[in-house]
Amino acid sequence: DGNGGAKFDLNVVHGLRNNLTPAITRVDANSVAYSDVLPNTFYDRVRHRLPANLSSGYTYLVAHENDQGCLVFDGDDGTYNAPNGGDVFLAQYDFYDVYGDYLGTKYTDAVTPVKNKQFYAPAYPSNVATFCGWFEGTAFYSIKLMDEGLINQLSVAYLVVLEESNCRYDNVRVAWIGENGGLEYFNFPLKNERTYSMDRKQYMKPYGNYGTVGAGISETDAGDFGPDLRDVRNIVNREATVNTVLDISSDWLTEAEFNYLKGLLIAEHVYILTNVNGEFKTVVIDDKNYLERRERNTKKYNLKLQLRYGQIYQAIDYQLLPPPPVPCSYFDSFSRMTGSGPLTLTPGTDIIINSNNATRSRYIYISVSSSTIGTPIAGQSYYVRVQISNAMPASNYNGVIQLGDGNATNTSYNGISSLDFLASGIWGTHNTTTNNYLYLRLPNFLNNATWSGTITITLGTNTCP
């Protein structure tokens, strides 16, 4: 007009549906998150597990205990959509056990709306436990927005139903930006396989090295004028790239879940969520066809997809390689705690037990420690080698070597058939360091026989020898 140009702030979203219903200027109890999940999307999957008090009135989500993820709500201050009329709000979580009995309530910190803000409410178990807390025995929990006074409900209520993980396969959790602009999640818990394809760029070069002229002609020194006999390749790799393709399989799907996954097939931004520090790995979907299944036309079915990692140079995940072995460490400090004579202990870097005409079932308790690795830890495995200097008399029951106190590994021996053997195993529980011992008992010799000799025990971590 005659006053010149005017500046307008416009919110523009391309290719997405506005899922806020109804289209009003104040968010109320009918408003939903920016999510493609509808009340019936997962209902058929979970309805047989729902207690009566949780079987209606919710939009249902499913999750494993270690899943991560959020729900995206409008957090504008009233400049545009006017959610909450600019009021401070928060997310409320009500927890229930498997019978639907109420366990307690948790809240996020209060949020003050601001212009163009989005509110990411922790929605899946790992994030909820981290940001809000958790109740032992939780099987279900609800999520809804409330005003700061906890009087007015500002969104629909979502109910998260916890599911058992498939122990046979590694779960693949896929995330994508859905048609309504929020983050969507789905678990593919069945068999998954990775395929690696290498693309190599190669070139031909003359035999040898003619790069520079040296002091004289030589057939052995690189850089001299003449063939370099240490480099006999004519074909050279200039660049090698790795493409990783992951084939994943869903569990049995309902028709509503198939409709929900249409958004995944057309999504531009797809990720694998590793559940490790919320790490996202970019992928693209290779599949070009999607067969819609309907329950009235067929029986149970699942969905198989082929995902290609989006970063070819990071396609091989080196974190999946086994960690390097822990260096072997030996215990080197021992002392006799108690026992029955004539078993004695000789100081040294090994346990050296001396016997001078010992009779049957003589025993000794020996404390174990090290200047570098401390004392043995209950529940961990240790390397134990036993060497007996000479054969023992016949017995009617074997001797014993026990690692630590209760629940410890016990190894029996007769001192005749094997004079060099392993007694490795789990170190037993102990309440104090005084119980952190190694126990040895001689066999029960027959006919009042005695034995003289040396028993040498080498004790170290489970990566030894």
Q: How many individual helices?
A: 3
Calculate the mean pLDDT score and round it. 76
Strand content: 25-35%
| Measured distance between first and last alpha carbons | 89 Å
Helix content: under 10%
Main beta sheet? 7 strands, antiparallel
Structural class by SSE content: mainly beta
Along the chain, the helix and strand elements come as HEEEEEHEEEEEEHEEEEEEEEEEEEEE
| Radius of gyration of CA atoms, rounded to a whole number | 35 Å
Low confidence ranges: 7-27, 213-219, 221-226, 314-323
Name the overall outline. elongated
Question: Reading side by side through the largest sheet, how are the strands ordered?
Answer: 9-8-12-13-14-11-10
Quaternary status: single chain
